């Protein structure tokens, strides 16, 4: 690779690192081209899965402040650049690794913080953003209903008390 090609490759990797919401590193040794193609399709629209030269990837990671990724950029490494929902990409990688033991989750980065292989698996265990938002909305709706019931209880209780007093007075008057 000529020096100008290397500079261009590093610049492209820097852009990918900057544009990504999360970066997940995997070792793909032993996977066939067909399996890699299947994995890329499984990742969908919000992630790109690319094999990069480790030296160039280390330089790009260092330039964007992800120095900690350098220790895992050894051996045959492929990088999943995730834009959007990182949970879905982590789930896809985890599930693919279960079916294909040759794929090994190494580490990753999300919001500038390091994720270990275990951290990537924990990320994959989370529910999707939509599910979490729906659960939060359900909790808020329940709390609003409870508050409405509490606010309504006082006037209802007062009306019942007044009616009971009125009936008692009418009973005594008669």
UniProtKB/TrEMBL annotation:
GO terms for molecular function: large ribosomal subunit rRNA binding; structural constituent of ribosome. One of its GO terms (cellular component) is large ribosomal subunit. Coiled coil: none annotated. SUPFAM superfamilies: Ribosomal protein L10-like. It comes from the Bacteria. InterPro entries: Ribosomal_uL10, Ribosomal_uL10-like_sf, Ribosomal_uL10_bac, Ribosomal_uL10_bac_type, Ribosomal_uL10_CS_bac. Pfam families: Ribosomal_L10. CDD domains: Ribosomal_L10. Keywords: Ribonucleoprotein, Ribosomal protein, RNA-binding, rRNA-binding. Part of the ribosomal stalk of the 50S ribosomal subunit. The N-terminus interacts with L11 and the large rRNA to form the base of the stalk. The C-terminus forms an elongated spine to which L12 dimers bind in a sequential fashion forming a multimeric L10(L12)X complex. Belongs to the universal ribosomal protein uL10 family. This is Large ribosomal subunit protein uL10. It comes from Schaalia odontolytica.
């Amino acid at each position: 690779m000529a020096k100008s090609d290397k500079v261009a490759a590093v610049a492209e990797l820097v852009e990918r690192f900057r544009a990504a919401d999360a970066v997940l590193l995997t070792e793909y040794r032993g996977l066939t081209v067909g399996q890699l193609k299947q994995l890329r399709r499984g990742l969908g629209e919000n992630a790109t899965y690319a094999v990069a030269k480790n030296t160039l990837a280390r330089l790009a990671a260092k330039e964007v402040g992800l120095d900690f990724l350098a220790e895992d950029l050894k051996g045959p490494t492929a990088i999943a650049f995730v834009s959007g929902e990182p949970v879905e990409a982590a789930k896809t990688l985890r599930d693919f690794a279960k079916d294909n033991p040759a794929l090994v989750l190494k580490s990753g980065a999300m919001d500038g913080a390091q994720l270990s292989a275990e951290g990537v698996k924990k990320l994959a265990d989370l529910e999707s953003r939509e599910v979490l938002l729906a659960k939060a909305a359900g909790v808020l709706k329940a709390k609003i209903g409870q508050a409405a019931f509490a606010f309504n209880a006082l006037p209802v209780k007062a009306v019942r008390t007044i009616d009971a007093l009125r009936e008692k007075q009418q009973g005594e008057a008669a």
